[in-house]
């Protein structure tokens, strides 16, 4: 067979059987989308990824993102591919395009309306849309701290997805949990190896200044500061 004679369906079928097949002749957006839809129809992850790599090379990112938004199965494979290849820049562009932080905020608005305890005690003051990553992380540490890593909105998932440095993650988590006076979480954060750097005590001292003088919370911070001094001696 001559490759130029293969239809879109034949090309995808050959790829699903592990055969080499050039996709270069499919130049129009219409043909590329037909390739992707045919791969999705077969539910073949390897073929879907191969077509996505071809589309990534030959389409403007916004066009690709727009089409992936309508094809959730392909979107999942593309996100996995970007994570595996550590293409963090394109991954962040994709997340911004999809406005996932807004999706998170919309979901939280629903939880807030249902009267969930954390939102009643600490109401949100602003939308997350177009906020810096560290702001989103802080928000996540306030409202989603106990969620598992597999949950999109969890702090650990944000840290892993965007490769947030451990020190920045810990300092942001400390600020968020201190705001809630979640001392058990603060204790756990202070047992991490990263935080045993003397310079980090300055951050805790900033938190201390925000507390009521003579309060049990201030005493707790003083005790932690004393312990960190002992760790350095």
How are the SSEs placed, and which strands pair?
Elements lengths: L7 H9 L12 H14 L2 H14 L2 H9 L2 H13 L3 H11 L1 H14 L3 H5 L11 H11 L11 H7 L4 H14 L3 H8 L10 H9 L6 H17 L1
Helix pairs in contact: 1-2, 2-3, 3-5, 4-6, 9-11, 11-12, 13-14
Walk me through what this model shows.
The protein is mainly alpha-helical. It has 2 domains: 3-98; 100-232, no CATH class. 67% of the residues lie in helices and 0% in strands. It has 14 helices and no strands. It has helices spanning 8-16, 29-42, 45-58, 61-69, 72-84, 88-98, 100-113, 117-121, 133-143, 155-161, 166-179, 183-190, 201-209, 216-232. Helix 1 packs across helix 2 and helix 2 (29-42) runs antiparallel to helix 3. The protein is rod-shaped.
- The SSE string, one letter per element, is HHHHHHHHHHHHHH
Please work out how many helical segments DSSP would assign: 14
What is the overall pLDDT average? 75
The count of strands amounts to 0
Cα-to-Cα separation, first versus last residue: 76 Å
pLDDT < 50 runs, ≥5 residues? 126-130, 228-233
List keywords for this structure.
233 residues, 14 helices, endosome, cytoplasmic vesicle, single chain, rod-shaped, mainly alpha
Summarize the structure.
With 233 residues, this protein is mostly helical.
